[in-house]
Each structure stands twice: as structure tokens, then as C-alpha cells.
Design goal:
The protein has a ten-stranded antiparallel β-barrel with strand order 1-2-3-4-5-6-7-8-9-10. Helix content is 2%, strand content 53%. The protein has one helix at residues 172-175; strands spanning 20-28, 36-45, 52-61, 67-80, 85-92, 96-104, 110-120, 129-137, 140-148, 155-165. The chain is built from one helix and ten strands, in the order ββββββββββα. The chain is globular, with a radius of gyration of 19 Å. By secondary structure, the chain is mainly β. It comes from Actinacidiphila cocklensis. InterPro entries: Calycin (IPR012674), Nb(III)_bact/plant (IPR022939), Nitrobindin (IPR045165), THAP4-like_heme-bd (IPR014878). Belongs to the nitrobindin family. A motif (GXWXGXG) lies at residues 20-26.
Length: 187
């Protein structure tokens, strides 16, 4: 179920499905980089202004699914116009800043993005652009990222399946209506 916070800026209602903390796992595979499974924690928040703030952390997982070491981190801001155009600014820990532009699909919670501009620090790895697809599917958030470098044409390199994480503190307000013994609730 998608909840729309009462203090969410009206322009952001079409992006409300992104809000919250998401966690899950995915696959990373790109020539010249380590092929691995990874874990991810992704958070979309808002403060009442006309953008969503996001922060993503990924880490390499071993064969048992345990954290080995950090993989990538990025953060940024998402905006949407009246014409369903989505614009994202992001920066990554490896020294890359991107401007993404795209569109929210008609009638479904799916966003296609492509890089409009890329800036790299001198030590950053080669990177010339990318594409991303985000979708809300059966209450889960799924995404796939593609990237290109001067020596590697555009290709998929990361994808993940994330589930929304619910903080138990959000449920406390609902508990005040339960009977003291908790059993009568089920009768």
C-alpha cells in the first residue's frame, strides 16, 4: 500500500511510492570490476519542499549473505514536473556527479532515467553515462542500472530487489486500541 504523508509537497504525490527505507540485495557485474552479490539500503525522505532526498549504500556480500565491505554510496535529490518529467541530481563516493532526466510512466509506478550530464574528479573511474529503471512491483522496489565508459558500451551493471523496512515505532499508535491481555483481539 502506498501512503501519502499529509506534509508531502503536492508536486511529489506521483513519487510517493519511493518514500521510506528499502533494503535488499542485487547483482553487480561490469568489465574491469568485481562481479558480486551486494546488499543495499536505500532511503527516500522529504521535508515538505518540492524534492525527495535519497541516500543509497551498497556493500559486497559473501556466499552466506554477510557484509564483506562497502561497494558504492550515493546521495541526491529527485524532482518531478507537472508533465511527469523526473529530474535527479546525484553524487557518488567514487567522485562522480550526475544529472539524470526521465519520465514517470503513465498509469504505473515506473521511472526511466538517463544521464543528461556527468562530471568526474580526476581520480574517478572512467564513466560516460548511464540509464536506470525503477519500478514499484507487488509492494517491492526494483531497479536496474546500466552504464557506459569510453571502452565499454552501455550495458547493465547493477540490479536489485528491495523490500520496504517498517520501523516498529510507527505501529505504536495502533496498539492503544488492543485489549490489555492481547488475546481478546483474536476472538
Amino acid at each position: 500500500m502506498i501512503e501519502i504523508p499529509s506534509d508531502l509537497h503536492p508536486d511529489l504525490v506521483p513519487l510517493a511510492f519511493l518514500l521510506g527505507r528499502w533494503e535488499g540485495a542485487g547483482v553487480h557485474d561490469f568489465p574491469g570490476s568485481e562481479k558480486c552479490n551486494f546488499g543495499q539500503s536505500l532511503t527516500f525522505t522529504h521535508d515538505g519542499r518540492a524534492f525527495l532526498e535519497y541516500v543509497s549504500h551498497t556493500w559486497v556480500l559473501d556466499d552466506e549473505g554477510k557484509k564483506v565491505r562497502p561497494l558504492e554510496s550515493e546521495s541526491g535529490y529527485w524532482r518531478i514536473g507537472a508533465d511527469r518529467k523526473v529530474d535527479v541530481t546525484s553524487s557518488r563516493d567514487e567522485g562522480v556527479v550526475e544529472i539524470w532526466t526521465g519520465e514517470l510512466a503513465e498509469g504505473k509506478p515506473q521511472i526511466d532515467l538517463v544521464t543528461d550530464a556527468v562530471a568526474r574528479l580526476p581520480f574517478a573511474p572512467e564513466y560516460s553515462g548511464g540509464k536506470r529503471l525503477y519500478g514499484y512491483v507487488n509492494s517491492d522496489l526494483m531497479w536496474v542500472g546500466e552504464k557506459a565508459t569510453p571502452s565499454v558500451p552501455l550495458r547493465a551493471y547493477m540490479s536489485a530487489h528491495l523490500k520496504k523496512v517498517v520501523d516498529p515505532r510507527e505501529w505504536i499508535a495502533d496498539l492503544k486500541d488492543l485489549p490489555d491481555d492481547g488475546i481478546a483481539f483474536f476472538k
